[in-house]
Design goal:
4-stranded antiparallel sheet, 6-stranded mixed sheet, alpha/beta, 12 strands
Length: 278
């Protein structure tokens, strides 16, 4: 089972911490006083977070704390009411979901969202839209450029599937795969967009302990192989404490604690948020 490395977390000027190896590199993500209101309800407020360039970060909190809302803000499913999001130092204020994906954020969802009737390979090819381009006329007339583009997409899709040992099921319907394999395929499709930050929304949901252990290995492998940052929402504390380097705890839409796994496990506010007052 994957175990968290003894990463030293160090302070940075924004009053946050990043892995020591990421010092001197711009954070992949910075949020400043981020918030959103739905009518008279404040769902997220004053959300400040920094994620290092190759950090595995965790966002945890009780049910209804606003974690998925934060992911929806980062990916522009929702436009923030206030605050700023910087992706690789660039403001995303005027971006929509497609543009923020092209800028470097990819995500998976609590409930798996695959094109079940398409093949495994075609699901990955859909994720390659940022990289493999072909003009409309060229595609309609099946000109040589179309076939070259198709070959590039096929080769890249098979390369990505091969990294995760899934090339043998490339021609299978995505909906026919076992649950754990569908989770992996959703991650592969997200990686196909060539992100610098991968958001995983409850990736271990519905998994048994063996599948969760394999997932931990996979997440660490992705970070090491692609040299990207990963941020995950997860209720499985063994997974979170096992692989995350920096963790933020959300409660009622506000961050109540940030720190290393050891610091979070021993934080009285965190214990109260999960277990209530004694």
């Amino acid at each position: 089972m994957a175990r968290r490395s003894n990463t030293k977390m160090v302070p940075v000027p924004s009053d946050s911490i990043v892995p020591e190896r990421d010092l001197g590199r711009a954070p992949v993500l910075e949020t400043k006083h981020l918030g959103i209101d739905f009518g008279g309800l404040t769902a997220v407020d004053d959300f400040n977070l920094t994620v290092g360039a190759t950090e595995i970060a965790g966002l945890i909190g009780p049910n209804g704390a606003g974690k998925t809302t934060v992911f929806n803000l980062l990916t522009k499913v929702y436009q923030p009411t206030r605050g700023a999001i910087l992706l690789n130092g660039k403001q995303t204020a005027d971006m929509n979901t497609v543009q923020v994906n092209k800028a470097g954020i990819a995500r998976t969802f609590q409930n798996i969202r695959l094109f079940n009737d398409l093949t495994v390979e075609d699901n990955v090819k859909i994720g390659l839209h940022n990289q493999v381009k072909c003009g409309t006329v060229t595609s309609i007339l099946r000109l040589p450029g179309y076939w070259k583009s198709e070959k590039r997409a096929h080769d890249r899709a098979m390369e990505l599937l091969g990294i995760f040992g899934m090339q043998d099921v490339a021609k299978h319907q995505a909906g026919s795969l076992p649950y754990g394999a569908q989770r992996r395929l959703e991650i592969v499709r997200a990686l196909a967009t060539h992100p610098s930050l991968l958001l995983l929304d409850e990736p271990a949901a519905g998994m048994n302990p063996s599948e969760t252990s394999e997932l931990m290995e996979t997440i660490t492998y992705i970070r090491d192989t692609f040299q990207i940052a990963i941020m995950l929402i997860e209720h499985d504390m063994n997974l979170v404490m096992g692989i995350c380097e920096g963790i933020a705890v959300l409660n009622y839409g506000r961050i109540i604690a940030k720190g290393t796994p050891d610091e979070i496990q021993n934080n009285p506010q965190v214990i109260e948020a999960y277990l209530g007052k004694q």
